[in-house]
Amino acid sequence: MSTMTTSKTPLLFSLLALIAGGAMGYGVGIKVEKSTNAPNLLSCQQQQQSQTERLDQSAKQYQLLVASNEKQSQQLEQTTKDLTAMTALVDKQKKEFSSQLALLAQKKQRLVVNQNKLVVNQQKLEVTKKKLDTEVVKLQTTTTKQQVVIDKSQQYFKRQAEMQANVTATQANVAELKLAAKGFKKACDEFKSGNSWNWVSQKDCDNYDQQLGLLKDKQAVLVSQQQALSVINAEIGKK
Question: In this predicted structure, what is the pLDDT of residue 239?
Answer without folding.
Answer: 64
